[in-house]
Backbone:
């Protein structure tokens, strides 16, 4: 708990970290980082200023997850539907991604963070792909917090990809149709090898999933908040975890 004090001592604490049960932490937290545009609008700033502030917010969240020894953090950064946005906004988002990785990767590596991506990276620019490859390669042996960045990610596209891969396996006689089960299917998802999220967080006051991890959230707990993502900090995360710890997860069974 000592290092956690360091994180929160600098500001007045709303959340009492003593309420946190360190033996029942979620293993995997997934976050829909939403509300950047509205955060900026409220301040009379361009939407891109909101995205920039959103990246800043990420630092505190990654630090808090690392300190708490959370194993996986999945971040929804760009969806398959976000291409519908104006060209300028899309390119600003991609530039921010490149800038973020360039600036933060050494620090992330020092902190034993492992970077992975989920989504169709082939749809991104060569510059972005290069930075992603560098980050993945550099951190591949780290065994601290696993950060999965969802980029050009859509859960429906992910499932179609998995179905195609399964069909190909059947065609190649690598698997019989009768032997297709949930386990086999999961091997074809981007999240292969990563446990399902225990807790899904969506800030910004929206109560929807927006094509995020549809398969993997079958039994996840949800936490919604009106806070826009750029204002989301370690304290908000702690609040979400404390709420999560009050939930009774039955997975269809009974106590
Ligand atoms: C989330 O913030 C960032 C991305 C979707 C890339 P938004 O840009 O969706 O912000 P709002 O929802 O318009 O406020
Ligand atoms: C979801 O937010 C995608 C990301 C946060 C990357 P959106 O802002 O794109 O979702 P909708 O349009 O409100 O459903
Ligand atoms: Mg949004």
Residues:
């Amino acid at each position: 708990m000592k290092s956690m004090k360091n994180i929160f001592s600098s500001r007045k604490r709303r959340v009492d970290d003593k309420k946190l049960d360190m033996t029942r932490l979620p293993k995997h937290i997934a976050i829909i980082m939403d509300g950047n545009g509205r955060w900026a609008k409220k301040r009379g700033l361009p939407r891109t200023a909101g995205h920039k502030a959103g990246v800043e917010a990420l630092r505190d969240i990654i630090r808090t997850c690392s300190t708490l020894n959370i194993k996986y953090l999945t971040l929804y950064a760009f969806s398959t539907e976000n291409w519908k946005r104006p060209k300028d906004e899309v390119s600003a988002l991609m530039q921010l991604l490149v800038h973020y990785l360039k600036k933060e990767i050494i620090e992330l590596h020092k902190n034993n963070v492992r970077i992975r991506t989920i989504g169709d990276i082939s749809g991104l620019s060569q510059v972005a792909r290069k930075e992603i490859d560098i980050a993945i390669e550099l951190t591949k042996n780290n065994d601290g917090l696993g950060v999965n960045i969802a980029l050009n990610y859509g859960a429906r596209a992910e499932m179609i990809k998995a179905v195609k891969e399964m069909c190909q396996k059947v065609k190649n006689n690598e698997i019989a149709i009768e032997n297709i089960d949930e386990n086999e299917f999961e091997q074809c998802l981007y999240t292969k090898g990563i446990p399902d999220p225990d807790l899904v967080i969506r800030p910004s006051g929206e109560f929807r999933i927006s094509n995020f991890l549809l398969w993997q959230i079958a039994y996840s707990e949800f936490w919604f908040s009106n806070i826009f993502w750029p204002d989301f900090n370690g304290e908000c995360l702690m609040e979400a975890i404390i709420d999560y710890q009050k939930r009774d997860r039955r997975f269809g069974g009974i106590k």
Remarks:
- The chain has one domain: 25-154+195-245.
- Confidence is low (pLDDT under 50) at residues 5-11.
